[in-house]
Amino acid sequence: MIDDLKAMAIFAETIKRGSFRAAAEALDLSPSVVSYQITKLEERLGSALIYRSTRKLSMTAEGETLFDHATQMMDQAELGIRIVSGHDHATGRLNITLPLSMSGDILTQQLAAFARENPGIDCHFIFDDARLDLVALGIDIAFSLGSLPDSSLNVKRLGTRGRTLVCSPDYLSRHETPHHPRDLKGWSWIKHDILPGSRTLISGNERIETNLTGTISANSSVAMVEFTVAGLGLCTAADWLIEDHLKEGRLVRVLPEWDVEAMPLYAVWHGNIGDCSNTRRLLNFLRDYGM
């Protein structure tokens, strides 16, 4: 039984990390030992637990069932050690990803507050506007702006983030002042690679969906704003990214009587986390913040 428990712990860590190599690094073992332990566990159970491929790991139905129990086992063991040792505080590692553009958002401040309250957790923050593969990269929780693709992962909507339609004064001077979204026909837009090719503008009860035209796109919201400041077109940018540009006159609002539809903010995490996991601790922390 002791060998089985050890193998279950290695199996659970492998799934969490997304690869034998990542699990081996976290457990200070060799990848061959990790693979051997899981293979022996599969032999004892008479069932495959993991589908192996060159790109990433995925679980069989039996693997999902065992992973749920293994995760609970590890969470309870860790909680017991904390209580008995008199150090009931969280330890371990938490890999978190969020858009680069949110480095100035209040969410980052809340994550910093979480890190201060949980000094035993090794928090690793990955700022990237791309939507990363949580399983393949061993990410525990992701925060994402905009619509989400279908996924087997857990998703919680945390709120929305405002956007504003802007361009540079120079770009505006080269066009007739618009009064309605239809007046933007022929204007160049700075587009974001992972966002839809249209924007919804709202004024009172009127909603207009505008298709984006133009030849400039970027995979970064920050770069998108910089290209807009440079006079290459207009864009819808997160409010916290353009606040200083608006104050200092580098950007101006376009169609100020029209609002850009806000972007939803989501938390995305694995569906089989335990109640004592660091991911759950973070989710509860944000819930207490009102998110």
Question: Your description of this structure?
Answer:
This protein has 291 residues and is of the alpha+beta class. Helix content is 39%, strand content 25%. α1 (2-17) crosses α2 (20-27) and α1 (2-17) crosses α4 (61-85). The radius of gyration is 24 Å and the shape is elongated. The mean pLDDT is 87.
Short description, anyone?
With 291 residues, this protein is of the alpha+beta class.
List the helices and strands and how they pair.
Blueprint: H1 2-17, H2 20-27, H3 31-45, E1 50-51, E2 58-59, H4 61-85, E3 92-98, H5 106-117, E4 121-127, H6 134-137, E5 141-145, E6 154-167, H7 169-173, E7 190-192, E8 198-203, E9 206-211, E10 216-218, H8 221-229, E11 234-238, H9 239-247, E12 252-253, E13 259-269, H10 278-288
Parallel strand pairs: 3-4, 3-5, 7-10
Antiparallel strand pairs: 1-2, 5-13, 6-11, 6-12, 6-13, 8-9, 8-13
Helix pairs in contact: 1-2, 1-3, 1-4, 2-3
